[in-house]
Specification:
Elements: H1 15-31, H2 36-54, H3 66-76, H4 81-101, H5 130-138, H6 145-160, H7 164-169, E1 175-176, E2 181-184, E3 193-196, H8 199-211, H9 235-249, H10 259-271, H11 276-283, H12 288-291, H13 299-305
Helix pairs in contact: 1-2, 2-4, 5-9, 6-8, 6-10
């Protein structure tokens, strides 16, 4: 019997759960075309739901009711934060559709998954100051193979605002050393681009390739340090590298994943006079509205359009 595995190679679920979770994962990859790391996250939630609902008892999918999904979301969502809760709800709805699609149940269980309140552009982007970004980079341990690899990764996040998944997918062919550019490949719902490769990032990548990258058939730039030598497994690995670097530098941040460097990159550009349109082009946003959130961090521009407080109070 096939079993699901985590990015560390440990079983994701019991063999009992894997009879359901593994076909679901294959459905996500082959039928729905989801990225590997997204399929991993979705199957993790479905596995936890099954463990919570049936525990050590036999799994009887036709006994599931919408109320079971509601109770699980109510218990799990408060521990996830808003973004995690939104992802949890999306995963469970997907799992419910799979159960009905595959004939495991005739009930529309999806109606039992409650929505999570979310307003577009409600948040102010969590970002680091330029000084904090440099402090994080300066704290990198560059005297080891692991440290030099992670330093090159962090430079791509900080200097180009790349997403974790974009760094993960970079191949040796994506760098034009003569032209000094790096090509961000097109992925599902994401725009590709050819960007100038900053000199410090290029130097760090070249040093990693020359001194540390294992010789193997894999064309990914960034590989596992320990055998088997293959590309890093999922974008959460990039966020773990970012979080570790923040802790090492002693930098406090409300967000500790790879995306905090993307927000910091955009915020620094805004502070240097770049327009929202220019920022959107560099970040490769599909929708201009996505870039509009950065207007909230331009305090001086907001002051210029603020209305006076009624009554003349200061």
């Amino acid at each position: 019997m096939a079993r699901c595995f985590t990015k560390c190679g440990r079983p994701l679920s019991s063999e009992r759960n894997a009879r359901i979770v593994e076909p679901y994962r294959q459905y996500l990859l082959k039928e729905r075309g989801l990225a590997v790391h997204t399929a991993y996250a979705y199957t993790r939630w479905s596995d936890q739901f099954l463990l919570s609902r049936f525990r050590r008892r036999p799994i009887r999918l036709r006994a599931l009711k919408g109320r079971d999904l509601t109770v699980f979301v109510q218990r799990s969502a408060p521990r996830c934060g808003r973004a995690g809760a939104i992802h949890l709800v999306a995963a469970l709805r997907s799992f419910c559709r799979f159960l009905r699609y595959s004939g495991h149940t005739d009930e529309n269980l999806e109606v039992g998954v409650p929505p999570v309140a979310h307003w577009a552009l409600a948040d102010v982007p969590k970002h680091l100051s330029a000084q904090e970004v440099e402090k994080v980079l300066a704290s990198c341990e560059r005297n080891t193979a692991l440290g030099r690899r992670d330093y090159a990764i962090l430079l791509l996040l900080a200097r180009l605002g790349l997403r974790g998944g974009e760094v993960l997918g970079l191949t040796l062919e994506d760098i034009d050393w003569d032209g000094g550019t790096i090509t961000i490949p097109v992925t599902k719902n994401r725009r590709g681009a050819r960007l100038p490769l900053p000199s410090d990032a290029g130097t760090a990548i070249a040093e990693y390739l020359r001194r540390d990258r294992p010789r193997c058939d894999c064309r990914r730039i960034f590989l596992r340090v320990k055998a088997p030598h293959a590309g890093l497994s999922a974008s959460p690995v990039i966020s773990m590298i970012a979080a570790k670097a923040l802790r090492r530098a002693g930098v406090q941040s409300a967000r500790t994943g790879a995306h905090v460097f993307r927000h910091s990159f955009a915020t620094t550009m805004l502070g240097h006079g770049a327009s929202l349109q220019e920022i959107g082009q560099l970040l490769r946003h599909n929708n201009p509205k996505t870039t509009a959130i950065y207007a909230k961090v331009d305090i001086e521009a907001l002051r210029s359009i603020a209305l006076p407080w009624p009554g003349g109070a200061k």
